[in-house]
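Structure ticket #2291
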Amino acid sequence: MQQDEARPRRVGRRSVLSYGLAGGAMLALAPSILSRAAHAATGGTLTANMKDLPNFDILGNNTSWVILTLGPCYNSLVGIENGDPRRLRGELAERWETSEDGRSVTFHLRDGVLFHDGQPLTSADVKHTFDLARDPPAGTVSTRKNLLVGIEAIETPDPLTVVFRLKRPMPFFLPLMATGWMVVLPKHVLEREGHMQNEVVGTGPYRLDGYQRGVQLSLVRNDDYFDRSEPKLDAITFYVATDPGTLDAYFRTGQIMLYNEMSPDSGTRFEDGKVPGVTVQRVVAPNPTAITINGRSGPWADIRVRQAASLAVNRRESLNVLEHGQGVVGGFLPPGEYALPPERLALMPGYGADYEANLARARELLAEAGHPDGLTARMLVRKNEEHEQRGIFMQGVLSKVGIRLSLDVQESAMFFKSLADSAFDLASQGGLSYAVNDPDIVFGTLHTKGPGNVTGVFNEEMDRLYAEQMALTDEAKRIEIAHHMDEIALTECSRLILFYHDKFVGHSTRLQGYVATGNPDDVSRLAGISLTS
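Resolution: structure written out below.
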């Protein structure tokens, strides 16, 4: 095949704008479309669900659907092996090494990697991507800027070598670089356009073939992919759908083969094995559902009031009511090697098994703080069903100790502005996003004086321990310090961690090689999966 024949078609700004013209079509048309697509090519077409995307910008977006749909179009320097974030494999980097002092990581790039528009990948693309992500110019949004503040400089000694100089040893740096959002973007497109909102030009195993807003997004195999054994599919088609009943029906009949973001109801319904031809993978999401408290002033600046609120919450009940019991109760650190042991967790305010005793202690603390008759407060709630249910739940449980909540329901844009402006008493912040399960990430952006702390509550001992664990290479010592930090955070109660919910991903039994991960950031490139006949 000639080079021009093999070169993937780039989808540009004009094409993207034209895709929106078909947005009025309904998914009701999907069955016949899906049926044809599933049998159209020798390698097969995988079908999956999605929600519409704000745009294509990997750098500026946070919504999981952007990376779930466009992740297969890109590559990171390294990735995770078989869904295990502790095991890394090379993607664009064929090998890498860390300096003895832990402050320098050198990546050696694969030779001959091409972007989808035919331009070669070099170290300049890596440097430009991560320089832009960590220090964006005015007008450019980088949602992962705070994760990359530990990078001091990026050097490119030759076209296939990239050296990341770090301000300090960062044990989580390589796992962070393996998360799905840390993709390498083309310098030549970024310099020309200033962003990637309207174009998808990656090096990944699949390339964008088309997007019809409200209908579907189509990917096709990248025949120039650097790993000749992959990809195994001819195409992947994502169909826009949001109604659980509709999605359940399409999954049941095999018209949607990969079902992301299943509800607990749907997940447990298909998990029982009674529906032939489908299976469900269940994993614990590492991002906790939480309530954020503004401790800057007023009654909530008093730790006794915050602890009273925590004591009023029955964590197991919150899991049963809000997630149908599908998940686990935990502290600030997600399930895994850093998680606080159960016997120590049970000693924290609101985690003891005797709920009536917890309520009695909560009333005592409120009286000690000068609120024997309780108090009133306003809870900021993001306008969607999940957050509103959480607000109603908190109204009920806090009323048991005399805390009377009014709910201030706001659209997303205003909600996040109110959160950033500290215009709330309590807030349904929802799932706190941990890119990597590591004390640096969990406490660096949430509970020290880091930029992610919107609570206004600081603890000097927490900050001291945080700085101490940053300098450690002894993992056992880091774990013990992490446990101590978790206990401090759970005692301060500036955030009430409710639970970690189970994540359900359904797929056809024809789909081979797919491994679900709890964190949507750890997106699969879908390169090694295949469909059996």
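Closing remark: The first strand starts at residue 45 and ends at 50.
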